[in-house]
């Protein structure tokens, strides 16, 4: 389970019927909350629902049967604030913005390249 106080992060989870459960995460738009979410989740994807690159990354994790947490920035009134926090942490403005075991991986190109090189699977073990 999460182990984080409600004051740090509010969580809403909704399982997807496909393999590799995807959960929606609600993160407060504070740097400490974003950092706590990054550290606490095995796989965390900051995404936008209409982004084809985000869909590709989420589908890859589902195909690999990897549970992953998702923050859909376009479904949140504070999504742009969270995106600015991510920019300050990672120097990456674009989505998807992917973290594995607390480490910034990058976007779709980085994730798919790691997969092609068989490095992604090792990172997920």
Automatic annotation (TrEMBL):
It comes from the Eukaryota. GO terms for biological process: cellular response to oxidative stress. Pfam families: Glutaredoxin. One of its GO terms (cellular component) is cytoplasm. InterPro entries: GLR_AS (IPR011767), Glutaredoxin (IPR002109), Glutaredoxin_euk/vir (IPR011899), Glutaredoxin_subgr (IPR014025), Thioredoxin-like_sf (IPR036249). GO terms for molecular function: glutathione disulfide oxidoreductase activity. Residues 43-105 form the Glutaredoxin domain. Keywords: Disulfide bond, Electron transport, Redox-active center, Transport. PANTHER family: GLUTAREDOXIN 2, GLUTAREDOXIN-1-RELATED. NCBIfam families: GRX_euk. This is Glutaredoxin domain-containing protein. It comes from Pythium insidiosum.
């Amino acid at each position: 389970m999460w182990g984080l106080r409600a004051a740090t992060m509010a969580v809403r989870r909704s399982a997807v019927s496909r393999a590799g459960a995807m959960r929606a995460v609600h993160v407060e738009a504070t740097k400490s909350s974003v950092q706590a979410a990054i550290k606490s989740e095995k796989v965390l994807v900051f995404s936008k629902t209409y982004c084809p690159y985000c869909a590709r990354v989420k589908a890859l994790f589902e195909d690999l049967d990897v549970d992953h947490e998702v923050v859909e920035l376009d479904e949140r009134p504070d999504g742009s604030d969270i995106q600015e926090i991510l920019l300050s942490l990672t120097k990456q403005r674009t989505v998807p913005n992917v973290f594995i075991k607390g480490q910034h991986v990058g976007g779709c190109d980085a994730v798919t390249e790691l997969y092609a090189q068989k490095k992604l699977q090792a990172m997920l073990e």
